[in-house]
Amino acid sequence: MSKKMTLFFIGAVILLVSAINSGLSIALPQITGTFGLSSGQSALVVTVGMATMVIFAVALGRFGDLFSKNLIFTLGGWIFSIASLLAGFSYQFVFLIICLFLQAIGSAMIFSTAMGLIMDAFSDQKQTQALAYNSVLLSLGGLLGPVGSGLVISSLGWHWLFWTIAVLGIFLMLMSRKMIRLEKIKLGEIGKALRTSNWKGQGVFTLGVVVIFASTLVKLPFLNALENFLVFVILGAALIVWSFVQDDFSLIPWISPKVLRSSDFLTSNGVLFFSMLAYGVSVVLLPFYFQNFLGYSASFSGLMSGLNSLITFLIQPLIGEVTVEKRQHSLVIIGLSILLLSQVGYVFFPHSQELVPIICVTVFNGVGWAFLLSPNNALGMTDVTKNTRGVAGSLNTVFRMLGSALGINFATSFFSFLLPDAKHISIGLATGFMNAFRLNFVVAIIISLIPFGIVFWGRKQLKAR
User: Fold this and answer.
1) Mean pLDDT for the stretch of residues 411-432
2) Which domain holds residue 442?
3) What per-residue confidence (pLDDT) applies to 446?
4) How many helices (H) and strands (E) does the chain have?
5) How many domains does the chain have?
6) Is the separation of the CB atoms in 278 and 335 below 8 Å?
7) For residue 155, what are the contacts with CB-CB under 8 A and spacing of at least 6?
8) Based on the domain organization, do 49 and 37 belong to the same domain?
9) Domain check: are 242 and 263 in the same one?
10) Are 57 and 394 in contact (CB under 8 A)?
11) How far is residue 212 from each of residues 37, 230, 231, 285, 289, measured CA to CA in Å?
12) What is the DSSP string of 393-427?
């Protein structure tokens, strides 16, 4: 099978998985209504998948480097597709969460190996193009996901969203035998890797992630929603940092010390984490703003989200072409500046159905992501060798997902803190909703300033080298 066909297949799978990940938030209002969920429970629909991907990504990326990225990728595709099929039959909230957990394991297997597979398919001289290809696929998934999800949900309901994804996924995986060569792996090698892996570090890391995500489900006495969120996040973050330190000193670490000691890698993923943290606020609030507050349909909400990704998709290849090592930091700063201004635009979103300011801010935000993603990814993979691409790619997934999930959890907690008596979001909340909406994005503006300091630190390290 030709390399182009293999890349096309990998791209189609990434596209499908990123589409459901970006489109699921469009289904939140309907799922919330079906099961009568609280704001914390509705956030769990999105964050359970993110938490699962964060927990398993690094381990799966390392196993891909050790054994076979192709095998991990293919198994992940089957798990993702079957779990999506089962999710469509969810008539109890707990069953839906279990299906989303299984779906996320499949997604983690795909994303933790995809970047490495794509980079392996390109020559060393074209690695920037490989990273641009990966970013374009994620952007296209972000475009098709909300638009397609909105159309399916408006016409058939949220159950059909999962069934549609399942059918497409199963079709792709039936083609996988012709598209991807599966290497033979000795069971003894797998057993040895499992026995010698740093499970203590993995356990501490898992506990830290679970603690962070528990903030939406467990309410400590005498604490309001915001205080509750901060307590869990601080404790969870401390455990995650401890797990990284412990892994660095272990005999057989999950993460190569060379990766974590690369200033370019740390700069790139620090920028990605805080940018996604600010982005997570809009992920959870905008669907409720469009559908519940302004009264638009799910398809319109999907179109607005898709417009953002469309702009990114159209501009990103051009940015990828001009991304060279000397321009990476500058392009990242341009992207961060545009994203910061778009966060300011969200603060001034109208109370009524005035489309012009909404569309302008949405387009501006898409331009910012186009300038940021490809140069930032290229910066992070500068010092990554071929035998650590799986781990490096999975860490990219970890920082991206963890940042977005924290943003979602913060927004729901802060919203509950500001409007503790609001059970359902509607136009009846009027000024109260818009004040809470705007204060969330004021915090997002403050968060968006942090990546600038990280980039300047990275540039200083580069000049020192």
Assistant:
1) 68
2) 3-197+254-464
3) 95
4) 17, 0
5) 2
6) no
7) none
8) yes
9) no
10) yes
11) 20, 9, 9, 20, 26
12) HHHHHHHHHHHHHHHHHHHHHHHHHHSTT--S--G
Q: Residues 87, 121: one domain?
A: yes
Whether 385 and 347 map to the same domain: the answer is yes
Instruction: Answer yes or no: is pLDDT of 239 > 90.
Output: yes
Q: What is the pLDDT of residue 427?
A: 47
Cα distances from 371 to residues 147, 161, 339, 345, 441, in angstroms, run 23, 31, 9, 18, 21
The pLDDT tens digits of the residues spanning 189-201 come to 667 666 777 778 8
Conformation bin of residue 280: beta by default, left when phi > 0, alpha when psi is -120 to 50? alpha
- Token representation of residue 446: 């403050």
Q: Do 145 and 13 belong to one domain? A: yes
- Tokens, residue 1: 């099978």
pLDDT tens, residue by residue, 72-83? 888 899 999 999
Gap between the Cα atoms of 56 and 62, Å rounded? 10
> Which range among 131-135, 414-418, 441-445 shows the weakest confidence by mean pLDDT?
131-135
Q: What is the arithmetic mean of pLDDT over 395-417?
A: 83
Does residue 210 sit in the same domain as residue 272?
Answer: no
Tokens standing for 53?
């991907």
Using CA atoms, how far apart are residues 397 and 354, in angstroms rounded to an integer?
36
For residue 430, the model assigns a pLDDT of 59
